[in-house]
Predict the 3D structure of the following.
Amino acid sequence: MSDVSPETQQFEAPTLEEALDRLAMPMVEAMRTQRAVRRLRTDPVDLELIYELLELSLKAPTSSNTQDWVYMVVTGREQKERLARLYRPLFRSFEPIVRRTAKTEQERRTLGPAKWQMENFADIPVFVIPCYRKGLKHRSVGWPQLSVSSFYGSVYPAVQNLLLACRAVGLGASLQTLPIWITPIASRILGLPRNLEPVCIIPIGWAKGRYGPTTRRPIEEIVHIDRYGNQPPRRPRA
Ligand SMILES: Cc1cc2nc3c(=O)[nH]c(=O)nc-3n(C[C@H](O)[C@H](O)[C@H](O)COP(=O)(O)O)c2cc1C
């Protein structure tokens, strides 16, 4: 299913109360249908709602329970313009590479919504930029690998919680790394202290289109039992 829908469709954002009620969506439905929604409405999103979702997202685990998170929430026009200026040349450099190296037609198709988002970046209502504090145990690059995996592993579970919560309330969102790929510039824009590293950026707005179901490889291709190579038989599909 595509994340494209007619621009002209009438839209009325739910109230805060209505949006919070939607969090009662069955977990399995949210998990099955959460996907990268890049075409977003430019209507404002109540920050109270964002804070509620961020609070839920932070129920996630962190390495040694350090909770050394900082969430930058960007809504100001000037800051969004600065992020857009950082992103545009990165997207333009990467687009032809992605187009050339895409393995599937589906991969190539995501370029349309991605391009739309790049062109409308400064109009997206909210960006959440999860950052994590660097230290001896948590490194964004380098050795030992355990410290690197603990660094990113302390951020992405919370990000997935946020994506699921957005999906439940009807907000479109996606996990992205390219827009802030040049992290020193992103850090400067955000005024981050040196020991904080921005990990990814989640553009958020009311979803224009519908969510999933998502297409993923079947578990028989992914699972190996006891030793690599010992894969389970195919299961009948519903
Ligand atoms: C680590 C990571 C980085 C990603 N970076 C980007 C990005 O820079 N730009 C983008 O449009 N999508 C990005 N994505 C989103 C993926 O492209 C998307 O989740 C994937 O294509 C599956 O899409 P679906 O959930 O809609 O099926 C990223 C996802 C992950 C997990």
